[in-house]
């Protein structure tokens, strides 16, 4: 598969939903609009993007039905992650994998106390995720990464870290988080998404992207738009997200290599 250097070919992080979907009780935002899978595909088509990965959204907790229906309708182009409780059995995880699910999203960005991943139910859950051929999609902040990433890697489960590891605005804390990211990447079991850079100062996003490229390389990086940019809809469009990515990764050859990483990881095909 040939990659056009002018644009990314894989959007590895976007959310799709309709206004009819039930919000989680603790949803931090409640969008009053639809961003259907058809809307996302239209945005992708308009910018030459051929494949995508739906990221489960915390706003809807474990309401995965819409994601699964989107995967069923567009299996050639899409993969997705889901939110499920840690008691989920192996059979269910294997059935989800057969439907185009590639990962289970764990979100500890807004928690005060991190779970102990070395004991059940988490220990068994992580093993079942790995056995089903899925990865953990981790959303957590810089300060938590030195605790969470070694535990996840030790459990033997592949990890994809969202949003540049949600870097802290505090330089020392951000450095600790980036160092933990790089150490996890060096194990060969971890990838980092260059996504949601618009949710942080550009200099912060550029610093983490630069460090990740220099220390991890494009074989461990992914790009995602984070469409439809919840809470930033009036400031950003899909093309703007791509422009930001090009500012963070100006070399088209490096962007092409990041595309290859996404195809290999999510679609098991070279490009």
Automatic annotation (TrEMBL):
Name this polypeptide is given: Amidohydrolase-related domain-containing protein
Gene Ontology MF annotations: hydrolase activity
Cited Pfam families: Amidohydro_2
Species name: Sphingomonas turrisvirgatae
Gene3D superfamilies linked: Metal-dependent hydrolases
Residue ranges of domain Amidohydrolase-related in the record: 10-258
Lineage: Bacteria, Pseudomonadati, Pseudomonadota, Alphaproteobacteria, Sphingomonadales
């Amino acid at each position: 598969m040939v990659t056009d250097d002018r644009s990314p070919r894989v959007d590895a992080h976007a959310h799709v939903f309709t206004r009819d979907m039930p919000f989680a009780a603790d949803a931090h935002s409640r969008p009053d609009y639809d961003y259907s899978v058809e809307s996302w595909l239209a945005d992708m088509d308009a910018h030459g993007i051929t494949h995508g990965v739906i990221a489960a959204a915390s706003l809807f907790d474990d309401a995965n039905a819409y994601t699964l229906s989107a995967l069923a309708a567009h299996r050639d182009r899409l993969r997705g992650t889901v939110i499920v409780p840690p008691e989920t059995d192996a059979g269910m995880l294997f059935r989800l994998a057969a439907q185009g699910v590639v990962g289970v999203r764990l979100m500890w960005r807004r928690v005060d106390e991190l779970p102990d991943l070395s004991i059940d139910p988490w220990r068994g859950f992580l093993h079942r995720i790995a056995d089903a051929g899925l990865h953990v999609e981790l959303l957590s902040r810089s300060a938590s990464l030195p605790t969470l990433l070694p535990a996840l890697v030790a459990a033997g489960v592949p990890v994809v870290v969202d949003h540049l590891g949600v870097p802290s605005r505090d330089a020392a804390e951000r450095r600790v988080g980036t160092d933990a990211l790089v150490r996890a990447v060096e194990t060969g079991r971890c990838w980092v998404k260059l996504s949601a850079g618009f949710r942080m100062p550009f200099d912060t996003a550029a610093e983490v992207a630069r460090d990740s490229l220099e220390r991890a390389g494009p074989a461990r990086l992914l790009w995602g738009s984070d469409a439809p940019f919840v809470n930033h809809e009036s400031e950003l469009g899909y093309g703007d997200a791509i422009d930001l990515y090009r500012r963070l990764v100006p070399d088209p050859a490096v962007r092409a290599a990041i595309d290859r990483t996404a195809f290999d990881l999510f679609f098991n095909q070279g490009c």
